[in-house]
Design brief:
alpha/beta; Rossmann fold; 6-stranded mixed β-sheet; elongated
Length: 669
């Protein structure tokens, strides 16, 4: 036990002794019970003389010897309690601190079931003056008073019993607090976890100091306009300056609770802000979480930080604090400092990693530790990139499908010009550190450093395959986003969906592949009404976020001709994937079958004459393989002819003898 805990226990024991003396004096002064008995079995006094009251000076002397005030006194002073409120709180806690008080209360009530204090008994013990004084003293138990509103005491919820006769008690959390054990309420632990204090970074120190000064004057709820990682790190830095205990609250889990249960949690959180100097950080990336944050803000009374990408204008109780962005130089310094603590140095790798992954200080620490595990105690550029790439991204998983790259450069059949443009695109991703930082071009980029590309061409010509090839070559995650799925008919909602995607993807370093981009591009039309104007704004916003994105963002469309020149100028690359020629189709057919597949004689010349895209060709090859497997035979032209006819039918094209020549009979059969 610490010295303060020991001193707090001694002060509390003395306060309880004084309380016992009050009870003894009250019992001895009260008339005998109807049968002549007195409620005295619990008395400490050896005779029936009225004991002398312990002097307040004794408690004051004990407090003067302590490093900080006793828990009960500190609480009473912070809430500016009167004498009766403090007295009632000690009476309510007494049975949990010393079972003898339960027996005393039962005998004083002449009822073994009433082994607790009541307001009537407390008033009889403390407020023996005029009637108006007793009535005013009873106001401390009004529902909106701090004793009940903050759940410092529990008052029995029994409307059939007058307030003066209801049970008053304290729960386990309050008992522990009075004893000096200041642990977070067990009922709150499933909803939150504690975060360590953070190190203040140069770019946030001024904002931290300003916000800390504001909180010292008047605690208020604030929203941090940042993504979850940066906002949480800022909150950790602020917690270190304010010397408060910071916990992250699971707002989604809390939002699932019934209203009454949620209200109970809100009150418990407000109590923790008082008892445990608790500060909360809440990720409010969606409306449900934002609503929970607003509920807490109404009565929390402590440091509440709500992390979100934008101000929540519908909740005026949340004040806005903009978190400064961490520069790449500061991120690189954090990487080098963390690596140095492990005796590691990767000067040639850190700059490239900083260009691709935007991590907070805490995330950098976790990533380096993970890289050490992967490398059995040694870190290489490969293990560090792998640790960055494999960081859990549950928020991104919910909005973007992860694609495992299955293709390499040799698998892709495209023209030499398309291949060269893709190589140049990969080079720009790989050489960003040299060009942007070492050569200084980054300072000249007004719109941002994002590398943006448009892949256009008919379906099945290799746009998705090219994205997979790039992801595999660059050793990066590939995430596919269907723009048709995030485009909303409600004005302004598409921009919010796009913002959420980029906010959660920023830290992952993933390649973002926006498929079916026609869903958004097709809306860019001549402005005839407000909806057209907003549609164009949403396209512009998507391009802006792509340009600001630290990774590679690719748009795929089947309708390049629908895009205006101004749109194309804002893209770094615009690569057109033409429909494959006969020669291209033959090369695709020659590479479409796995080496382990059983093949009969295949007429590649005949197959190449079929006007099909690479995607259609792969579909035919797979379907023909299943036909051959059913026949327990090698894949041959009859199987491929039947599969090709099915693919033509799917495309709405008639299959003729001119298309398949001598193999057409297999289709007819």
């Amino acid at each position: 036990m610490s010295d303060w805990r020991h001193d707090n226990a001694r002060w509390l024991a003395t306060a309880l002794r004084a309380l016992r003396e009050d009870l003894e004096r009250h019992a001895l002064a009260a008339p005998a019970l109807p049968d002549g008995r007195r409620a005295l079995s619990w008395l400490v006094a050896g005779d029936l003389a009225v004991p002398s009251r312990s002097e307040p000076a004794e408690l004051s002397a004990l407090e003067a010897q302590m490093d900080r005030p006793p828990a009960l006194l500190a609480l009473a002073r912070s809430l500016e309690f009167g004498d009766f409120e403090s007295y009632l709180l000690l009476l309510a806690a007494a049975p949990a601190l010393d079972p003898a008080f339960a027996q005393a209360f039962a005998e004083l009530h002449d009822d073994s079931r009433r082994d607790h204090v009541t307001l009537g008994l407390a008033l009889a013990l403390f407020a023996s003056g005029a009637g108006e004084q007793r009535l005013l003293a009873a106001d401390v138990l009004l529902p909106d008073g701090p004793l009940r509103a903050l759940q410092l005491v529990d008052v029995a919820d029994d409307e059939t019993t007058p307030l003066v006769s209801r049970r008053i008690s304290v729960d386990e959390r309050m008992t522990g607090f009075v004893r000096g054990a200041n642990r977070i309420d067990a009922r709150l632990r499933p909803l939150m976890h504690e975060l360590p204090p953070g190190r203040t970074a140069p770019e946030t120190s001024a904002a931290i100091d300003a916000l800390a000064e504001r909180f010292e004057e008047s605690p208020a709820a604030n929203i941090l306009t940042a993504d979850e990682g940066a906002g949480t790190e800022f909150a950790q830095q602020l917690a270190a300056v304010l010397d408060v205990r910071l916990c992250a609250l699971d707002a989604h889990r809390m939002a699932e609770l019934p209203p009454q249960a949620r209200l109970k949690i809100v009150r418990l959180l407000a109590r923790e802000a008082l008892l445990g100097r608790l500060a909360l950080v809440v990720n409010a990336a969606d409306p449900a979480a934002a609503a929970v944050a607003a509920e807490i803000a109404d009565g929390f009374g402590g440091v509440l930080l709500v992390v979100g990408p934008e101000p929540l204008s519908t909740y005026p109780q949340l004040q806005v604090v903009r978190v400064p962005a961490t520069s790449r130089g500061d991120q690189a310094a954090a990487w080098h400092a963390t690596l140095a603590r492990y005796g590691q140095s990767l000067n040639g790798e850190v700059d490239a990693i900083v260009q691709q992954f935007e991590l907070t200080g805490a995330e950098i620490d976790e990533t380096v530790a993970r890289a050490l595990e992967l490398g059995d105690g040694a870190i290489t550029g490969e293990t560090l990139r792998w640790a960055c790439r494999e960081r859990p991204t549950p928020a991104l998983d919910s909005i973007a499908r992860r694609i495992e790259p299955a293709f390499d450069w040799d698998d892709m059949v495209v023209s030499s010009d398309v291949r060269e443009q893709l190589r140049e695109l990969a080079d720009q991703v790989e050489q960003r550190s040299l060009v942007y930082e070492t050569w200084g071009f980054g300072a000249q980029l007004v719109r941002g450093r994002g590398i943006t590309a448009l892949f256009s061409g008919p379906s099945g010509v290799g746009k998705t395959m090219a994205a997979e090839v790039l992801a595999r070559h660059l050793d990066l995650e590939l995430r596919r986003i269907d723009l048709a799925g995030i485009t909303s008919k409600w004005v302004g909602e598409t921009s919010k969906n796009v913002r959420r995607i980029f906010d959660v993807a920023e830290r992952s370093g993933a390649i973002l592949f926006f498929d079916e981009a026609d869903a958004l591009f097709g809306q860019r039309t001549e402005v005839r009404d407000s909806h057209d104007r907003y549609a164009n704004v949403e396209v512009d916003y998507l391009l802006q976020r792509m340009e600001e994105y630290t990774g590679l963002a690719i748009l795929a469309t089947n309708r390049r001709d629908a895009l205006d020149a101004a749109f194309l100028r804002r893209l770094r690359f615009a690569i057109d994937f033409p429909f494959p020629t006969v020669e291209d189709r033959r090369r695709i057919w020659e590479h479409v079958f796995p080496t382990q597949a059983a093949l009969d004689e295949v007429d590649y010349g005949c197959l190449a004459r079929l006007e099909l895209s690479g995607g259609n060709i792969r579909s035919i090859a797979v379907n023909a393989a299943f036909l051959a497997a059913r026949d327990r035979a090698a894949i041959g032209m009859p199987h491929l002819a039947r599969a090709a006819s099915r693919e033509y039918a799917k495309l709405g094209k008639p299959m003729t003898a001119a298309d398949l020549g001598p193999y057409y009979e297999a289709v007819r059969g």
